[in-house]
Amino acid sequence: MKNEVEVSAKKVYKHKLFVRIVKIVFLLLLILISILYLFLYIVYDGGRFTVTLDKQMQSQKNVYLSETGKIGEKTRKLTAETIDYMDNISIKWIPKNIDTEADGSHNDDNYIAYSFYVVNSGKETVNYWYEIDIDDTIKNVDEAIRVMVYRNGKPTVYAKKSKVTGKAEPGTKKFYSKSIMVLEQRKSFKPKSKDHFTVVIWIEGDDPECKNDLIGGEIKMHMDFTEEHVYKKK
Description:
Distance between the termini: 79 Å
Number of strands: 12
Radius of gyration: 26 Å
Shape: globular
Number of domains: 2
């Protein structure tokens, strides 16, 4: 009888231990999933395209960003509206008046378009750099991405260099580096001046790299305005 009680007690103890281990493992998995979800939320739901101005340009030079160009709407950060799905299109489908049709976000079903201003309300003529960086990309969707930047009405289209020729795709300027799409300097930005920017992002259907492998891909990027540029190796 004593042996039977001891055996039963061991079985109960093992069962309780097993249940406790399962609970701990489940809790750890739940924590891990929560952390992963939070990371993905921050990366992909925090706006797929943001524009940020260097603090020193605002505080020392009195340069600021604005969606409308009005003095009362000074800011250091702008966020474009996102679209959930983007099919490939041709640059020919982009409206000719895309640069002037609206301020702020004016997306279509298959492209992101965002217009804003850089305003010099200070007393100094300044030079500044603007760059568009890739924060993250899934399924190499950047292979067929196009970024068109209008500055004061003049457009430049940027794309990843051709895998076949190693040169810029026709009608484009190749990305500055693997992680930097655009890097340009604006010189002699005079007091009381405004620079008007429009950034258009789409997947170019005529790009040889626009294949079914890109379906389900995602990309997050941001644009920075700084007075100085820190050299980054290509």
